[in-house]
Amino acid sequence: MTTRCLLPLIAATLISSVSLIAEARQPKRPTLPTKAAVSQKKPIVAQPVQPKWQLFTAPDGRFSVLMPGKPKQDTQVQKTYMGEIDLEVFLAQPPKQEVAYLVVANEFPHSYGQMTSPQEILNNVQYMALKTTQSNLISQRSIRSSNGHPGKEIAYINAGGKITRSRIYVADGRLYQVMAITTKKQQKNLAKTITGYLNSFQLVLKK
């Protein structure tokens, strides 16, 4: 089975896993007060809720990352011609913010690593991400993890205006996708926070 045949299965499962995430939370509109209520009460200025960021380490110890609170964890099994692939999803969504932070990791069948180069895997993952989400590429660049594993950073926007910044790494037969999904408006306000989140991701070499 070719790389291009296998990756759509992975991408399809990933997209179904985070389909609700891509619609990032919309804050509820407050009920408009009556004129009488306005005259009797002083206006209350809403303060944004600042999440408490903390270091999260994956249960298997393979990576660590700063998250705005303890992430929710989910595991899905994708059957392929080459065997079953376990997708691990770690998701955190701060309250009253239109943003989702998530890490998705999966281990390939043993033979997969012999089929193609890490760079081709990264390129194919980018291709499938854009195709499956029907998004346009904003930017891309080659990167490496702090311990030398090959990676790629991409940013893309879908038809609904949701922007995804993603760093993808291939390491020890596994694929890691570190993503932040938000709106155009929130992207401007959270640019530094999202960059800090992406920078905090650390892979751990297994001996």
Explained architecture:
The protein is α+β, with helices and mostly antiparallel strands. Helix content is 26%, strand content 39%. It is built from four helices and ten strands, in the order ααβββββαββββαβ. It has helices spanning 3-17, 35-40, 118-133, 184-200; strands at 53-57, 63-68, 72-80, 83-92, 99-107, 135-144, 150-158, 162-171, 174-183, 202-203. The strands form two sheets. Strands 3-4-5-9-8-7-6 form a seven-stranded antiparallel sheet, sandwiched between helices. A three-stranded antiparallel sheet has the order 1-2-10. α1 packs across α3. The longest helix is centred in the C-terminal third of the chain and has 17 residues, at 184-200. Mean pLDDT is 79; it is low at 1-13 and 15-30.
Strand content: 35-45%
Per DSSP, the total helix count is 4
Q: Considering DSSP H and I runs of 4 or more, what fraction of the residues is helical?
A: 25-40%
Give the tally of β-strands. Answer: 10
Cα gyration radius (Å): 19 Å
Q: What does the main sheet amount to? A: 7 strands, antiparallel
Broad structural category: alpha+beta
How far apart, in Å, are the first and last alpha carbons? Answer: 30 Å
Q: What is the helix/strand order?
A: HHEEEEEHEEEEHE
Q: What strand order characterises the main sheet? A: 3-4-5-9-8-7-6
Q: Unreliable stretches, pLDDT < 50, 5 or more residues? A: 1-13, 15-30
Q: Based on Cα principal axes, name the global outline.
A: globular
What integer is the average pLDDT?
A: 79
